[in-house]
Amino acid sequence: MEAYTSFAEVYDTFMDNVPYEEWADYLQNILREYDIFDGLVLELGCGTGNMTELLAKKGYDMIGVDNSEPMLELAMEKRIKSGQDMQSFELYGTVKAVVSICDSINYIKDDAELTEVFKLVNNYLDPQGIFIFDFNTEYKYREILGERVIAEEREECSFIWENDYRAEDKMNEYQLTLFVQSQEDPDLYRRYQEIHQQKAYTLEKIKTLIEKAGLRYVAAYDAYTKKAPMYTSGRICVIAQEYGK
């Protein structure tokens, strides 16, 4: 089953532990460091539009792009301007910045495909425009998620998330089982299953692909701080810049 089909309708419920407002403040502070106080900003992998909406409230004219049509339908309900596939999106012009959070980059499972995404970003950035994104590290997949099973129960929905990390191809596969309460009958729960796959990238590989795509690598931080990445960093934030078309 395609990722984020059944999960889309309960995504916000299970993601309520993500500090979206803190992350939005962090992104805004970085954007301001590069004199980006307003104007067009694109979010890649916008999901249901939580971050897109927060940045819009901060004065940015937001565009959302995501691979999942069910997620985009929910994002459109939150007044996101538009949505497309992040691997083949088209814009009518350039934007001042591009942002991507919640390890959306890890869903691109091939170096060549990720390079093409970075090329598209470079193509649609204003001169010296900024690209800010995060990604999950190999350490996180290997040491934190590994073979771990994660389960969570809520009144209206529950999930079981089984992880299988393959070191040989740096691929983490999630087997996601959902139990969603029926709106017609509160005593009835419908069971859904989805398969998700994410690719583990090292920071060095990310740097290589950024530069191959024509972008300029600027900096990397232990996620949503200004500290240097560590061996034990589970998530890393990267800043890249348009460097000529």
Write the layout of secondary structure elements.
Layout: H1 11-14, H2 20-33, E1 39-44, H3 50-57, E2 60-65, H4 69-77, E3 95-100, H5 111-124, E4 125-136, H6 138-145, E5 149-153, E6 157-166, E7 171-181, E8 189-199, H7 203-212, E9 216-222, E10 235-241
Parallel strand pairs: 1-2, 1-3, 3-4
Antiparallel strand pairs: 4-10, 5-6, 6-7, 7-8, 9-10
Helix pairs in contact: 2-3
Account of the 3D structure:
With about 240 residues, the chain is of the alpha/beta class. The protein is about 25% helix and about 35% strand. The protein is built from 7 helices and 10 strands. It has helices at about 10-15, 20-35, 50-55, 70-75, 110-125, 140-145, 205-210, and strands at about 40-45, 60-65, 95-100, 125-135, 150-155, 155-165, 170-180, 190-200, 215-220, 235-240. The strands form 2 sheets. The chain has a 6-stranded mixed β-sheet with strand order 2-1-3-4-10-9, sandwiched between helices. A 4-stranded antiparallel β-sheet has the order 5-6-7-8. The longest helix has 14 residues, at about 20-35. The termini are far apart. Residues about 1-5 and about 70-85 have low confidence and may be disordered.
